[in-house]
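User: Quick sanity check before I run a bigger batch. Here is a single chain. Can you write out its predicted 3D structure?
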Amino acid sequence: MTYKDKTKNFVEALMSKDYDNCINMMAMNHESAKNTNIDSLKLGLEQFRALIGSNFGDKNFEYSLMKSEKKRSTIKSENTPPNTTLALVEFSNEKDLGVFQVLFDDKSKKILNINTLEIKKPKPNMTLFWLFGIFPIIVLAFNIYVITQIKKSNLTKKWLKYIAVIVLNVPAISYAAVDGISFKLLNFQILFGVGFSMMGYLDSVWTFGIPLGGIYWLYKLKQNKLSPTDATV
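Assistant: Done. Predicted structure follows.
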């Protein structure tokens, strides 16, 4: 959460036109910044402030860390510089949200570079997002119920049936807070049929798979009228 807090402090100073404070929060001793002209840097900060203000206003932002990472790729231009970490920090006002891409120096924990990604989306209504969570909870409860019924039965090789119930949850239906409902035909939800992520609005997603494994084995149990004392399958 240090990345989120440092980004928040930097942007608040930026929007207050406290450019000296912004510079104090930047990794000016890093090798890539040693020859930076302070006046040019302040001009760049002023332009960056104007860009944020024109798109999102200039106050009352909320912040959420989406992820931090070190990129290692066979394509050299896609790598993060040595001893740095790239953080994506979501910010939002009353209406819209966007994302800061911030490069941090690992040694000083200060900012080397910051910019906004080309993302501007309306702030979503989270009521619908939380209501959608009823469906994954139903799938989870159903799969747990089927597993308990298998456990009570006289089925042989129960561990194979458990795996089928836990893994065979496909296709997957997702609801993202920002992008809404999506459907993936060959996406398996292997953790009892559900998935959940919440890292800012842009990365808040419920997912559930159709519990094919659970439906099949519940059908087999009912079809054969199995009980804790009945025959094996």
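The beta strands are 62-69, 84-92, 96-105, 111-116, 121-122, 172-176, 180-184, 194-199, 203-209.

User: Great, the batch can go ahead then.
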